[in-house]
Design brief:
Elements lengths: L4 H11 L16 E5 L2 E4 L4 E4 L2 H4 L8 H13 L11 H13 L4 E7 L2 H18 L7 E5 L8 H5 L19 E3 L12 H14 L3 E6 L3 E2 L5 E2 L2 H13 L3 E5 L23 E4 L11 E6 H9 L15 H16 L2 H16 L8 E7 L2 E6 L5 H10 L2 E2 L6 E4 L7 H16 L2
Parallel strand pairs: 3-15, 5-6, 5-7, 7-10, 10-11
Antiparallel strand pairs: 1-2, 2-3, 4-12, 8-9, 11-12, 13-14, 14-16
Bound molecules: pyridoxal-5'-phosphate.
Length: about 425
């Protein structure tokens, strides 16, 4: 029995919990019937140009024939098999591809089912590494204010302590070390003063720190800050100097979003452990991976208990691996650098005028990311319908109104998105 749109919305209200929301929310919610290219089609027939890429995952558009085909072919072979004691071509080929694309020392791949879990896995790897090296006291992490690494407990423990609501979970969350987010902006140099707080903390606490964890170049859900590549470079040097591992969370920055394939390439550094997720499957299915070096993987395996202690039920799901391979192939065969830099120029032109508005505190553009930071937090209940009325899907958070379009978006669609932002912000 098919529900009409009103019944659907009522049943949604009756039964479903949406992300970061109350169970009986007064926030508007919009039922989607289908999606094609860069457009979401609502059940009432309206079409919205999608500026969010479904939380930064969709690179080539929705309902892409080649990605659909990759899943159709795979589903006829097998949708899933357990990964304990078994393996399959989609996982092997994807792991090989990820090792090829990521910086040189990353050689080993652990698949998991979401970004947060890939962060859990990364943190576990770091702890097991030091355990195997006979330094089990190195089990805490040094993280950054305004960072975001996911919603599970260990990932939450390294998120911004205020946004991450640490007070709500005091006594439950692992206590980590924090430093201020980098103040030197992207494109600027990093002075000794800029890195001092980080260096002092690392020096003082190195004996109990397993790893530094941060998002390279862009702090995403924690505030959309773009920071200096030189800062990241110095973080790498200091991690080596103080014998601490470096975990880079490339879940949002990976696969070209910042104009380089991975964020760390801006600084020409590589981490000891890297997390990828989000755009890995081009937005089709949930899959993430944690990559590490030969050295870390061998150390863990030579220690006690000689095994890496993790193994999700849906590890390396073949459908997800197959569609990831298709997405990566499409990306690498496309002129993605030109597309991203063209989007960057267009975002610059379209959003820069917002800077003159009194409601706006800052406008920041990097690669295919455009951010308008407001002076005051938005009212989601009123702002969301205003975007929908203008035929666009833009979902702000806090003071941030941002765009992260699919790389295949046409100029006119991107223009419609930036125009909508200008108009809505002007009317606030
Ligand atoms: C989204 C995100 C995560 C969490 O990924 P999920 O798939 O939502 O668990 C972790 N780190 C960063 C940088 C992210 O953007």
């Amino acid at each position: 029995m098919k529900m009409n749109p009103e019944e659907l919305l009522q049943a949604d209200r009756d039964y479903i919990w949406h992300p970061y929301s109350a169970i009986e929310s007064d926030q508007p919610i919009f039922p989607v019937a289908s999606a094609e290219g860069v457009r979401l089609k609502l059940v009432d027939g309206r079409e919205l140009i999608d500026g969010m890429a479904s939380w930064w995952c969709v690179l080539h558009g929705y309902n892409h024939p080649e990605m659909n085909r990759a899943i159709e072919v795979q589903i006829k072979q097998m949708s899933h098999v357990m990964f304990g004691g078994l393996t399959h071509a989609p996982a092997v080929e994807l792991a090989k591809k990820l090792v090829e694309l990521t910086p040189e020392p990353l050689k080993k791949v652990f698949f998991s089912d979401s970004g947060s879990i890939s962060v859990e896995v990364a943190m576990k790897m770091a702890i097991q590494y030091w355990h195997a090296k006979g330094q089990p006291e190195k089990q805490r992490f040094l993280a950054f204010r305004s960072g975001y690494h996911g919603d599970t407990f260990q990932a939450m423990s390294v998120c911004d302590p205020v946004n991450g609501m640490h007070t709500l979970f005091t006594g439950v969350l692992a206590r980590q070390h924090f430093v201020d987010s980098p103040t030197c902006r992207f494109g600027e140099p990093c002075s000794d003063q800029d890195i001092r707080q980080f260096e002092q903390k690392l020096e003082a606490e190195q004996g109990n720190i397993a790893a530094v964890i941060l998002e390279p170049i862009v702090q995403n859900a924690g505030g959309m800050h773009f920071y200096s590549a030189e800062y990241l470079c110095r973080v790498r040097q200091l991690c080596d100097q103080y014998d601490v591992l470096l975990i880079l969370d490339e879940i949002a920055t990976g696969f070209g979003r910042t104009g380089r394939l991975f964020g760390c390439e801006h600084a020409e550094i590589s981490p000891d452990i890297m997390c990828v997720g989000k755009a890995l499957t081009g937005g089709y299915l949930t899959l993430a991976a944690t990559l590490t070096t030969q050295q870390v993987s061998e150390t863990i395996s030579s220690g006690d208990p000689g095994l890496f202690m993790h193994g999700p039920t849906f590890m390396a799901n073949p459908l997800a691996c197959a569609v990831s391979l298709a997405s990566i192939r499409l990306l690498m065969e496309s002129p993605w650098q030109q597309r991203v830099s063209h989007i960057e120029q267009q975002l610059q032109q379209g959003l820069e005028p917002c800077r003159a508005l009194p409601q706006v505190a800052d406008v920041r553009i990097l690669g295919a990311i455009g951010v308008v930071e407001l002076v005051a937090p938005v009212n989601m209940k009123t702002i969301q319908p205003q975007f929908v009325e203008r035929g666009v899907w833009i979902r702000p958070f806090g003071k941030m109104i941002y765009l992260m379009p699919a790389y295949v978006m046409e100029d006119t669609d991107l223009q419609a998105l930036t125009d909508a932002i200008y108009q809505v912000v002007q009317g606030l």
